[in-house]
Amino acid sequence: MSDILKALIEIVGERGVSNTPEEIWFYSRDPGVLTPHLPDYVVAPRTTEEVQKIVLLANREKIPVVPMGNGMSLTGLVIPLKGGIVLDMKRMNKILEVNAMARYAVVEGGTSQGVLKACLQEHYPQLRHSIPDAPPTTTIAANAALHGQGRLTQQYGFNSEMVTGLEVVLPTGEICLIGSPSLGPYWFSRGPTMPDLSALFLGWLGTTGIITKIGLRLYPNKKIRDVELFVTDRVDLIPDILYKLTHLEILEDVNVWFQPKPLMFQGNFHITLYFTGDTEEEITFKRRMIWDALQEYMDSKDGGFMSVQYMKEMLMEMPQRGIADFADVPKGGGFEYSGPITILSHFPQYAAKVVELAAKYDVLYASSARLISGGHCMMFSISFAFNRNDPAMMTRVKHALDEATAFALEMGGIPWKPNFMEQKMIMEKMDKNALKLLLMIKKNLDPQGIMNPGNWEVNT
Amino acid sequence: MYALKWKEKVCATCTSAECLLKCQYISFTRHDEAHGEMMKVVRGEDSRVLHECATCYACEEYCKRGNHPFYLISERREGRGMFTAPRPITNQWKNMTQMQGKYMVGPVKDKVLSCCFIPDLGILGTGEIFKDVASAVAFGAEFMCPAVHTHFARMSVIKERLPIVIENLVKLGVKEVICLHDECYGTFTAIASAYGIDVPFKPIYYMDFLLSRMREMKDRITPLGIRAAYQRPCSNRLIPDKYPLVKEILDLIGVELPAREYQGENCLCCGEILRSISGYKLADDVQERNLNDMVQTGAEYCVFNCPACQSSLSEKVAKKGLTPVHIINLCKMAIGEKEREAR
Ligand SMILES: Cc1cc2nc3c(=O)[nH]c(=O)nc-3n(C[C@H](O)[C@H](O)[C@H](O)COP(=O)(O)OP(=O)(O)OC[C@H]3O[C@@H](n4cnc5c(N)ncnc54)[C@H](O)[C@@H]3O)c2cc1C
Ligand code: SF4
Ligand code: SF4
Fold it and tell me: Quick one: pLDDT band at residue B341, thresholds 50, 70, 90?
């Protein structure tokens, strides 16, 4: 047994470490199209102190550490590009506090969306968090680390903007509290009125430290949720329609989607509109506001509301499983998306690009855009399904996704949860001094370059 | 392509013009006015009728002179490139009901139980009442009556698809098609005949079937002793001679139908099509009037014939304190096969 393995066992116990081929095989890949790479060890800590000891060991031995939640970000962000330790955070899954009055929760760095959702449903039914449509086993800290979006993003911004404080193990091993918890027992503010240090960890994809605790805003959970589905066949109208809808300031979540299959969806753009209320009157009032806002499109026959009766159960699911069903249309269950963040007025160009790429690479597409912060921008997903047992199809999807990212950058968008190659494309295009700052921060926080190496690096 | 058999002279000499005078959605007070507008439609001219018709099907029943005003209105609208509902909704219906080879057929002999393209009908057509035909089902777009496209003024879709649907049923080698959807029976009888489309099997209306089965099982019936309001569907306007069957069936199983304003010829649409065509204002108004009318009769149940009406109104009638139930399930309750629907 190697010294490193022994040391790791000493830190987390025998059941918390593995380097057996069958286990590291699983940790070498994710469900996306990127090439797998084996780690040397998989380690599953249970406490912040264990994380700290692992990081100190990794520093000493100069071995990479790749923090991992559920590994479902799809773009190879937890593939250990340079081997080393995959740090599986899932055993750190406790809910540490719910402050119902101040509407925040504090959870450990491997706590899943599903665990928090279940806890709130059972003990705090008046509260909810912004749950993404990712599988419920995906983790809250990882979602913040990649600037995820959820059901409340339309109203309140990226899920990472809802962070109210962090506990982080720095790449050099120090345990650091960020925001109001650095001054006292309350986790209500990530920064203000101090400099917002949380920005050193959010969006960095695990390259600047390991989040071991995270505070998250909670929001009112209204008694009734409802949904309307507006359709139009004129893509050029979408930005205006969205502008009118967001002006209402009453929508919980807005998703615009289009896909060629099944046939009933062909040719139309669908806008799913969620809204909530505590009484039937509130719901009726909001529904009428939504319909009134779009009446002009009904009058011109360019758009209308479709009956949601038969789809309602599926639409109301949180998270929605429909996306996973899409993955299996070509059989073989593969699916990956490029999700540039962009402005609403570019919707028609992106929509045209999806169709063009699907035809060019002969792959099946589905596209869904989620509005962010009342329409300041949107996450436009360019999704392709593929058969994992068909390498040629996977290569075509990879090319299509690369081209989608290049297009997004050309259009002035920002690729979301970019894989290591897309990160390079971003860094090539970004303002040179901003790049210098980014690299400087990274170098200072992680002088040995051990944190998720290969990511946010110029020379990979 | 098939064409609507239209008797222009019958309209020209019509002294009633009841088709439009009775219309609940376009207001006419004088015969000459209503007749004049209908004649514009007949001559292929623009008319307010083409812009205001809510597609409730009712004028098919109001005209007692054997003409088909609603089909003609729909033909004229399509001819002028008009859309009743928004274009994407119209096309969505067309796509959604497209035959794609995804149908189901059970072991069929000389009779088939047609479930149209409505899964709920497959569940209804079961049990003792349907014991001899329950497995002989046909379901899917291949067997769907395309009448719904009249709402969208796309008679071309009906003319194109109906002969194929008929052909698909003929291919099953059946002599009789028991239609669980009101609209299928209306299509195979009224629409097919108006367009001169041959139907080489005998369409059987499920309420005829239901009535005769309930008579056969008379001994098993325990009268339900309840009051109900009936939601008549738009497609029943295509076959008004079948309307009295509801009362006969309900009488047999001990369900009272108290008189109300919106019944018979004066019945109101379930409202869902109105919603997609013109918006919530008209739909909410129609539904509110209809439901309040049901409530004031003291009815405990709202009886449905069409699953589409049931799905659009169930929640709303329940909120008004009425229990929504399909007429087949009421019959199943009367023979003790089904628990009383929870109130
Ligand atoms: C069907 C489907 C639907 C999806 N829908 C959505 C959606 O609606 N919204 C959305 O935002 N995403 C969505 N996703 C993408 C993704 O699954 C989510 O963003 C999810 O939150 C990722 O969580 P994870 O635990 O799987 O992250 P991982 O893939 O494990 O990690 C993601 C990144 O975070 C880093 N990381 C993990 N844990 C830590 C930690 N404790 N500290 C520091 N860094 C860490 C990792 O190194 C990696 O860079 C979807 C994915 C699928 C498959
Ligand atoms: S459709 Fe019938 S009721 Fe109307 S004008 Fe013609 S004949 Fe008379
Ligand atoms: S279908 Fe109904 S709304 Fe249209 S003209 Fe006939 S009666 Fe009036």
Answer: low
Question: CB under 6 Å to ligand 1: residues?
Answer: A 66-74, 77-78, 89, 109, 132-134, 138-139, 141-143, 145-146, 148-150, 205-206, 210-211, 323-324, 452
Report the distance separating Cα B195 and Cα B172, nearest Å. 23
pLDDT at A302: 98
| Ligand 1 atom 3: residue of nearest CA | A134
Which residues lie across from B111 on neighbouring strands? B176
Q: How far apart are CA A284 and CA B287, in angstroms?
A: 14
pLDDT digits (tens, 9 = 90+) for A416-440: 999 999 999 999 999 999 999 999 9
Q: What is the pLDDT of residue B213?
A: 98
Task: Scan for tokens 């912060």, then name that residue.
Answer: A373
Q: How confident is the model at residue A325 (pLDDT cuts 50, 70, 90)?
A: confident
Tens of pLDDT along B12-29?
A: 999 999 999 999 999 999
Looking at A59-191, which runs of residues are DSSP E strands? 65-68, 85-88, 95-99, 104-108, 127-128, 163-169, 175-178
Contact between A286 and A250 under an 8 Å Cβ cutoff? The reply is yes
ipTM of the complex: 0.92
| Protein residue with least CA distance to atom 44, ligand 1 | A206
Tell me the pLDDT band of A333, cut-offs 50, 70 and 90. confident
- Quick: pLDDT tens for A356-391: 999 999 999 999 999 999 999 999 998 898 888 899
- Ligand (nearest to CA of A318): 1
**pLDDT value for B343:** 52
Domains present along chain B, CATH in parentheses: 8-79 (no CATH), 95-210 (3.40.50), 218-334 (3.40.50.1860)
Least distant ligand from the CA of A203: 1
C-alpha distances in Å from residue B342, one per residue of A309, A336, B252, B313 = 21, 46, 22, 17
Mutate to test the pocket of ligand 1, among A28, A29, A73 (most ligand atoms within 8 A of CB): A73
pTM, rounded to two decimals: 0.94
**What residue of A is the nearest CA neighbor of B276?**
A305
Burial of A7 (0-12, 13-18, 19+ CB in 10 A): middle
Average pLDDT along chain A: 95
Are both A17 and A78 inside the same structural domain?
yes
pLDDT, tens only, A108-132: 999 999 999 999 999 999 999 999 9
- Cα–Cα distance list, B259 to A58, A90, B232, B295, B299 (Å): 84, 65, 14, 12, 10
Which among B61, B120, B73 has a CA at the least distance from the CA of B263?
A: B61
In this structure, the strands spanning B111-114 and B176-179 are parallel
Q: Give the C-alpha separation, A12 to A214, whole Å.
A: 22
Phi, psi of B230 (to 5 degrees): -105, 130
Residue to mutate (ligand 3; options B33, B59, B282, B286; most atoms within 8 A of CB): B59
Q: Give A-chain residues touching B275 at CB under 8 angstroms.
A: 305, 307
pLDDT of residue B331: 98
User: What spacing in Å lies between the alpha carbon of A110 and ligand 1's midpoint?
Assistant: 11
Q: State residue A276's pLDDT score.
A: 98
Percent of chain B with pLDDT over 90: 97
A236/A284 same-domain check: yes
Contact (CB, 8 A) for B177 and B204: yes
DSSP codes joined into one string, B105-119: E---SSEEEE-TT-H
Does residue A415 fall inside a structural domain? no
A15 and A33 together in one domain: yes
Residue A394 forms part of a structural domain: yes
Query: Which atom in ligand 1 lies closest to the alpha carbon of residue A327?
Result: 1
Residue A322 has pLDDT above 80, yes or no: no
Pull the structure tokens for residue A220: 């009112």
Q: Which of A92, A81, A86 is nearest to A45 (CA)?
A: A92
By the 8 A CB rule, do A56 and A15 touch? Answer: no
